[in-house]
Amino acid sequence: MYKDVISYKLSENISEEQLLNVANDIAKNWMSKQSGFIKWEIHKNNDGGYTDIVYWKSKDDAKKAEADMVNIPNANEWYSCYEEGSISSKNLIQVATFH
Q1: Are 76 and 26 within 8 A, CB to CB?
Q2: pTM across the whole model
Q3: Signed CA dihedral, 62, 66, 71, 74: sign only
Q4: String of b and e for 60-95 (b: at least 16 CB within 10 Å)?
Q5: pLDDT for 83
Q6: How far apart are CA 41 and CA 50, in angstroms?
Q7: Which pLDDT score, from 0 to 100, does residue 74 have?
């Protein structure tokens, strides 16, 4: 499994409710149609920022979706949710799970 981990802050006039509504539309209308997409989680950090974790079957699936981001419907609405310069990302490749 491959995970994209994206941290950010919301733009000044964007509420959490707005973020979740836009994200829900993106998830239903674009992300769920991407090959290898498993799920998208949005977490609120203790500093008031957010961290998303997007789960993919493989790195290749994630990279194909990244290349297709130009086709996201209403992408400007989504991008306007993020405070400029606040986005950072990293990728994780699962090597083990313990229960």
Answers
A1: no
A2: 0.91
A3: positive
A4: ebbeebeeeeeebeeeeebeebbeeeeeeeeeeeee
A5: 96
A6: 10
A7: 84
Task: Round to the nearest angstrom and report the end-to-end CA distance of the chain.
Answer: 17
Rounded CA-CA distance 2/62 in Å is: 8
Residue 11 and residue 81 in contact, taking contact as beta carbons nearer than 8 Å: yes
Amino acid at position 88, single letter = S
Pair of tokens at residue 37 = 């997409």
Which whole number is the average pLDDT over 86-98? 94
Q: Which residue, among 34, 28, 43, has the nearest Cα to 74 in the 3D structure?
A: 28
Query: DSSP readout, 61-87?
Result: HHHHHHHGGGG-TTHHHHHTTBPTT--
pLDDT band at 2 (very low <50, low <70, confident <90, very high): very high
Reading the block at residue 44, the tokens are 């609120």
The angle formed by the CA atoms of residues 69, 73 and 74, to the nearest 5 degrees, is 110
